[in-house]
Every structure is written in C-alpha cells, then in structure tokens.
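Minutes, project check-in

Agenda point 3 was the complex the collaborators sent over. CS summarized: two entities, 944 residues total, and the question is how they sit relative to each other. Sequences were read into the notes so everyone works from the same version.
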Amino acid sequence: MNTSDDLPSPVPALFPARGARERVDDLLTRELANANERIARGSVMPRLDMARFRQELAGFDFERPQSVEQLLAWSVAQLEHGAVHMTHPRYFGLFNPAPVAPSQWADRIVSAFNPQLASSGSSPAPVEIEAHVIRAIARRAGLPADAAGHFTASGSEANYTSLICALTRAEPRFSAEGVRAFSGPVALYTSRECHPAWSKIAHQAGVGRSALRLVATDGNGRMDSHALAGVVARDREQGVVPVLIAATAGTTGGGMIDPLASCAAVARSQGVWYHVDAAWGGAALASERLRGLLAGIELADSLTIDAHKWFATTMGCGMFVLRDAAVLSEAFRVATDFMPSNASSLDPYLTTVQWSRRFLGLRLFLSLAAAGWIGYGAHVERAVEVIAQVKSRLQARGWQAINDSSLAVLCVVPPAETGEIREIVRNLLSSGRAWVARSTFEGREVIRICATHGETTLADVDELVSALHTAG
Amino acid sequence: MNTSDDLPSPVPALFPARGARERVDDLLTRELANANERIARGSVMPRLDMARFRQELAGFDFERPQSVEQLLAWSVAQLEHGAVHMTHPRYFGLFNPAPVAPSQWADRIVSAFNPQLASSGSSPAPVEIEAHVIRAIARRAGLPADAAGHFTASGSEANYTSLICALTRAEPRFSAEGVRAFSGPVALYTSRECHPAWSKIAHQAGVGRSALRLVATDGNGRMDSHALAGVVARDREQGVVPVLIAATAGTTGGGMIDPLASCAAVARSQGVWYHVDAAWGGAALASERLRGLLAGIELADSLTIDAHKWFATTMGCGMFVLRDAAVLSEAFRVATDFMPSNASSLDPYLTTVQWSRRFLGLRLFLSLAAAGWIGYGAHVERAVEVIAQVKSRLQARGWQAINDSSLAVLCVVPPAETGEIREIVRNLLSSGRAWVARSTFEGREVIRICATHGETTLADVDELVSALHTAG
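CS then shared the predicted structure for the full assembly.
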C-alpha cells in the first residue's frame, strides 16, 4: 500500500480505542450509580446557580477539543443539580418515571449497534421485535389478533397519528387534496380534561384549533358521553364533518378514565374513528386486578400507550396501536428508489410519521420479558397503593380528596385553616423534600400527587405528608 | 412503622439492587465491545435465520419473568446477526452512521437521569444545553445571533416543522381554521431529487400530496432555480398560494447541493418561507475547507440538520434551526394548568411538535465539545477523501461516475461488459463484503456509495472495489 496515499487517522475524540472506551464506560457505571444514590438523599428540585451555569455554558465555543472525561463529569454534575429529579423517590409528579433498569440496558445496546428502524430490509430482527411487542400490547387490550401499530417518539405523535388515520379514512381524497377535500369543516372530540397537546395536534394537521371540541365532563373528570353525542349530532346538522372521538384512559390532571364503552358507542353510531389515549393509564392492562377499569378499550380503532410513562422505560417510547393497519399504508406511503425495503407492511418508513428512527421497542421488550405481565402488574398495583396511603394519611389530617381515581393520581385540597395551594406548592418545592404539581381538576385548583417511582417507600409517603403539612 | 401496613417490595426485575446493576453494566461494556469487533470482521449483511428467529420471538409471551442476563445476551445476538451493520466499516450506505463514542456516553447519562425535556421548569440545565448547541449550529451556518430552534426526533420532523411554520406565518387564520383559511390550494416546492418524505409531510399537514411540486433539476441533481421561479409564478397566476420552498443541501440520492442562493432569491422575491434541508450535508459546516460549498445557507428561514447523520450521533437526533423563533410560539402554543413552566420562549412543549421528550441534545453537545469544530471538520473531510479514493479506483477499472458531488456520495455505473446494476448489488450484498445501495440519479439507475463510518480504511476501500468488481 502506498502510504503517501493513505487516509488521515480517524478522529480519536470521536472514535477512541477500545481500552479508552471501556475505561470511560466503567467510570460511568460507577458515577451514575453514585449520582443516583446521592439524588435519593438530596433535594428533588434543581439547586443549580443558573447565572453561573449560563456563564460556564457560554464558554463552550467548540473552538478546540476538550477532555471527554472532564466533559462527562461536568454533564453528570449539571444533570445532578440542574433538573427536577424523575429518579427521586419523592417525585410525586407528572407521568415521568424513574426508568427501569432493563430499559436503560436496552438503550445501551441500541446506542452501540445504532440500527436504522426505517425498514425491515435494514433491520429485520429489530422491526420484528417491535411488531411482536405491539401485538402483545394489542392483545392485552383485547384488540383482534391482526391489530398492529408501531413505536413513536412520544404520546403526542401517537395521538397525532390517530388524527391522520381518521382523516385519511374519512375522505379518500384527503391524501391528495388535504383538508379542502372535505365537504365542510372537520371536527374532533375529546373532553375538557384531555391532554392539551390535542390543540397543537389540530393545528399541525391543518384542520385548525377550532376543529377541537372539548366536551363537557361529568363532574368527576370523565367525558360525558351524552354531551358527546349531542355535540357530534349538532355539528353534523351544521355541515361539520366529525372525524375523530378521542377518549382518555387516565387523564393527566386527575387520572380519570372516560366511559370507554359509551364513547365507543357514540363513535360507532356516528361512523367516526374512535381513539383511546391511554398514554399513561394503559399500563394498568398489566394488572389482573386493575385491567377491568379499562373495559371498553377493546372497542377502540386505535390506542396511544406510552412505554415511557407507567411502563417506566426511558423517554421517549410511545406506542400507536390500531385495529385495521391498512390505513397506515395509505396515510404514510411513499415511493423511493434507494430504500432497502421488502415493501412489507412492517416497514416503518411506509407506515408511520417517522423515517430514520431509533430502535425504541427493545426497551419495553426487555423490560416486559424480564418482569413479565405479572411484574408490571405488581409495579402498577404498588403505585396505586402508594397513592392510597398518601390519601388516607392526608385525609386523617383533614385534607380533602377531590378526584376519585382508581389509578395512581390524587388531587387534594388542604384543610380550610391551611395556606393557599399556590403557596403550599411553592413552599414544598423550595424545601426540596418532594415534588407535586399545582393543577386544576374540574375547574377547581388542586394539589396533584402521582406515584411515578417504583421504589417509593412508606417513609417517603410520610415525608411527603409531613412536608405538605409543613408547607401550609 | 406498622409493617402489616407496609408496601410490597419494588419489582426486582425492574429495580435491581446496585450490585446486580453494576454487574450487568460491566458485562455489557465488554460484550458490546466484543460484538463491535466481531462485526467489523464479519458480514455487513444480516445472517439471521428469520424462520427460526420468528419462532423464538413468538415464544416470548411475557407470561413469566425471565433472566435478564439471558435476555440481554439474546438481544445482543439478534442485533449482531439480524440487521445491516451501520457500525461496519464497509457499510457504504444510506446516511446511517457508526455512532461516535461521546454520543453513546451521552445516551447512557440521559438514560440514567431521564430528564423531561418538555419544559425549562423541569429541566433548566438540559434545556439550556440544547439551546446552546442549536445557537452554535445556527451561528456556524451564518444565521443571525438571535436565531433559535430545537432538537427533533428526526429530520422528517424538522422538515415537517418548517411546513407548519410556513403555513402559520403565511396565513394568520391557519392556526384556528386550518388549511381552509387560505384563499386557494397551497403549494410547497422542492426538487425531483428531494427526500421522498416530503410527500408524507404534505399529507400529514393537511395540505395534500398534490400540493408538493417536484421542480426539475439541472441534469446534475440540483434544483433548477429558473424552473422553480417559473413554477411558483404559474401557480400564483392560477390562484394557488405558494408557502414553502425547500432546497436540499446534500441530496440522499447523489449528495448534491441545490443552488442555495438562487433558490433563496426566488423565495424572497415571492415572499415564501425558505427552508434548507441539510439533514446530512449540514455537517460540512464543520470543515473550513468544505463549508463554502453551503454558501447561501445563511439566507434560509429555517434549516434541518440531523446530528444522527454526518455528525454521527446515535439515532434519532434531528435539529430544526430558524431565523425568527417567534413563529414557533404561534404554531405550537398551548395553555395548561399543570406544567412546571416559566412559559419562557425556551420551553420545548410550547415551541415544538413534541411534548414529553428525551434529552437529545447532550449527544451533540458532548461530541462537539470533545472533538471541537476542528475534529468534526476532519471527520467530514476524511469521508470525502474516502469517496475520492473509491472513485479513482473504480474509474481506473472503467467504471463511470454519474454524479459530481463535492461531498461523500458517489453514484457509479459499471463498465459496459460488467453485469447489470441490480445483479451487481444483489451479488455484493449476498457476499456480505460491503453494503451499497441501488438507486437512481437524474432518472438513471446507479450504484450509490456513501462514506458513513469514521474508521473506514484504505483496505476497506480496496475490499469494496474488489467486491464490486467480483459481483459484476
């Protein structure tokens, strides 16, 4: 070989030798475990001096290479002090989990191989593993054996996908001509307690935010199916085209489950696509004791279930599951010259919003295989029990429960003599002893408490209750 | 504490003790490094017996917990044998990289802390780190100092975001009323050699696939800006509303760069949003020698640059960069009760398609800080040199180069006496010696060869050339 003709060396900062890589990985294994232990003993809240942080950050001008060991230590420190800790056992927060270990290992494997999940030609085994998990979830939800779907970056993407499917099925010319193909304005229906992302979704899909109907609730956070039927019927009379009804199984605000069967009946009688947003609550399917709460979910045309919520994988790992997969091939088809594809119905680039995509599904595959349905059942039941313990302790101190969820979200208000909710939450968060949200439930201001960490103890519950009391 | 009242134990398969976790992580460090070395010595192509694999996969019914060590070994084996190897130095393929080490470490850190990137209230430090990287990219591209943007799950999401921004800016009533608010059908413009995902994007945004105009190219894979001006003008005459011109900087088929400044001039004269899809080619900004090829990119209203392509982070790590960030707050605004937000312009849930999201930006932050622009410059220059070496060797054997890319994609046809392209590629792939794509360039069937691995050697180049010759 003519060495004068040789290529420059690979960039060592990007492609270090094996020994150097292993040294860093071993360091990270220890450092991340240490940080995790420190977090559990420390403040739930970020304690970073943001002014100093911004100054340090501004210093990164990328003008010259820097030691990766120092960079990693700096990054770990910023994450240890510069974010609300999802991995703290007293994060009683939004649906952000302490991620389960098998999902973190799956992430490592996927990072190392970096398979391209666009096509089954590129990644036959990964594509089939994802499809297998989706089928298992679909069957668990009671959908037919040929139900299918795919992993998504987020629950929002899955909900958005349901709207694209509904529009595509409702009007054959939608694909070519878009929203103008409909005979009138279209509408989609969800409840006042739904996730607010639906508003962005209506904007993004080109139907406009005014297409979103927020149906009245029953006073207990659940969509009123009679009101739903009425709104849909009135819309039709006025030339509006109803395309999608989206019930929620586990609302963000109160953990409530819409009457899934009644909403399904309205959708069926109106010939409208029926979606169930079970982004968080869907994990209750794992529990023999709790899955009955989701009765009616088997009537859905499509489902959103996020593995990165109650299944507690790392973010983001959403799922879109649907009864009749054929519509995906209509909504997301493309023609290309260059893709190594079998053009099979499994090819994600032909059946999903995404193109290049990470191998997301291994996280839930490994976690579900390691724990079994029984393990995940115990995981969700334990969270429900944590919230039951919080509830009884707060009630014993005169607090009032405002929602009546069978899942793991509690909305409370303090006794009359205690301070205002805004102030209680502010004081609690600045104490760093626990994290809860200020929210509203059925229009009433509440403190929202959700069990998200699979290792929260009774001592953590007691600490939360004491901290809430002190904060008042 | 009343122990009869105690909570059940955490599920050990999901939350193992520290010792057990570290044992698995140490095992993975070794096993993934071993697998990586075996891959480089083996076949680029999957060698899995798919019938047997499907049988094994069907056996996972999740009915009872399984040993996680065995599951991890099984998963690594399926990835080692069941996917085209992006990490093989002779994967001369689509824009899927062998991921750089700092991005894999970033993934580990992010998996462990699992911060929620929806809001700056939850994750002040991560949100600012991402914004810092985006600003650095924007400045490198020559955009003004107040340019902004965000990380996306994919390049498709970033391109899609450009269309939503363009629609939102073009018609104030688009947000509320959707596509019907426009006075006529809308249109978006890209070239015949653009990425085919634009067709899905037009469908998803509700404007319809017929809104997509594939403008003629100049015979060398670049959009013909005169043809573009003509198509836009004719559309306007006919009552069509032009909303977006999307040039490509580094086409998938041929690595070609549209005439960015001329396309910008058309967009400006027509008052149309100007987007540059530099998903792959944008990394050339790192190189002092190559960045001039992207002249005109500084005129864009918005850019797509994927960190998971030529910057070689793990998938998926896209970026959307834009000149005037205000439109994001109009397109993606929402009102919520429960979000811990500063409602700052940095809050991703108020300014992006996504809601719950992984901390993506740490991958590029760490890699760019470790290598510096200079390291990434060397990385992209090396890839260009790899392709120059392939080209000169194939030309010496009578092959003909069909494209004239200054980047790292080569389209070739074999000498007349050699076999058909379809057969050559099929034979090459079944040999497992290298991976190339069969594609088309300017309507002509070609073999497409792209340097994607930062450690490809001259010996790999020789092996590719010999393998292609043998396959003919």
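Noted in discussion: The radius of gyration of chain B is 24 Å.
Follow-up: revisit at the next meeting once the mutant set is ready.
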